[in-house]
Design a protein that fits this description.
The chain has 302 residues and is an alpha/beta fold. The chain has a domain at 130-255: 2-Layer Sandwich (Nucleotidyltransferase, domain 5). 36% of the residues lie in helices and 13% in strands. It has nine helices and eight strands. It has helices at 12-23, 76-88, 95-102, 106-120, 182-192, 235-252, 257-272, 278-288, 296-301, and strands at residues 39-41, 52-54, 60-61, 134-142, 163-169, 172-177, 198-202, 216-220. It has a five-stranded mixed sheet with strand order 6-5-4-7-8, with helices on one face. A hairpin with a 5-residue loop joins β2 and β3 (60-61). α2 (76-88) crosses α8 and α4 crosses α8 (278-288). The longest helix is centred in the last third of the chain and has 18 residues, at 235-252.
């Protein structure tokens, strides 16, 4: 039997109950005043599934309040289908595919995907390489930055017109950067990597003096055909980039710079949770939906 045959993917009451079990593991809590007492269920033919009222502040609410699903006209069971598809698709799933699968408009599917990516974002950055751990660092280029290279100009051979992405792998954490100069990258690395860490990079010049700031810096010289020397390599981060590039080029194809950070969060999330199965990754993603809102105007602005 397919996992998508579960009741909460097709029945609204079951979908609400599934989300309640994650958001309220010990029982309903009013999102308006924080009270867990005197919470009443509101029934009747016209009441929404899971509608409740707080006896303290007298306000009504459902479990979606304070999550990425708040104020959506899309049924929650369709939201859960979208969450599962995005959590389980290794290279992502396009808004056009969500639009066809969920039978919603393309505009709705696009916005749903961005809300779900917002749930994938961790918010705070971890400090990598604690206790002398190894951190691989590398960068890549994505798409065409129209703000640098106008739409109708001839495509060049260099990378100046592309979006720049810096990634760290201990757990994957990637970010959009304006350039790849040492003055830009080194402060980011110092902020997010422990001073006692062991850093692995390629031979790029911006990494030349990292041994000044970290306990150890080793590099491989790709220009000389070197891709590993004992346990010194950047193979892990290059594997991450290969999945990211296949998704961006093969599934999403186009991405404006103002949205790129959310796509990076999507690939980071799936990479970091790759050791668990799809249903567990789905549950982790629903947990990440708590306490986050993304308004449509905010998604347009990035």
């Amino acid at each position: 039997m397919s996992v998508l045959s579960q009741p909460y993917f097709h029945d609204e009451a079951a979908a609400v109950a599934k989300l309640e079990s994650i958001v309220w593991p010990t029982g309903p809590v009013c999102p308006h005043c924080g009270s867990a007492e005197k919470i009443y269920a509101i029934g009747g033919k016209t009441a929404r599934a899971g509608l409740r009222k707080c006896g303290n502040c007298r306000k009504q609410f459902t479990v979606t309040v304070g999550t990425v699903f708040e104020s959506s006209h899309v049924p929650l069971h369709k939201w859960l289908q979208a969450v599962y598809l995005m959590a389980s698709s290794k290279k992502g799933i396009s808004a056009h595919q969500l639009h066809r699968t969920l039978e919603v408009t393309y505009k709705t599917a696009w916005f749903m995907a961005h809300r779900i990516r917002e749930a994938m974002r961790t918010g705070a950055f971890d400090v990598f390489g604690a206790n002398g751990g190894t951190v691989e660092v590398d960068e890549t280029f994505v798409g065409n930055d129209r703000t640098i290279k106008p739409k109708h100009t001839k495509k060049g051979r260099g990378y100046a017109h592309k979006h720049k992405v810096l990634a760290l792998v201990d757990r994957a954490q990637s970010m959009v950067v304006d350039d790849l100069k040492a003055a830009t990258l080194v402060p980011i690395l110092k902020e997010r990597i422990a001073a006692g860490a062991r850093i692995m990079t390629d031979e790029a010049g911006q990494y030349r003096f990292l041994n000044r700031d970290f306990a150890e810096h080793e590099f491989v010289s790709h220009g000389n055909g070197e891709y590993g020397r004992g346990d010194i390599h950047t193979n892990t981060i290059e594997g991450y980039f290969s999945i990211f590039k296949r998704g961006m080029n093969g599934v999403y194809q186009h991405c404006a710079k103002r949205h790129l950070h959310r796509y990076l969060a999507e690939f980071d999330f799936r990479y970091n949770e790759r050791e668990v199965d799809d249903p567990e990754r789905f549950t982790l993603l629903l947990t990440g939906a708590i306490g986050k809102r993304l308004m449509y105007r905010d998604s347009l602005a990035g």
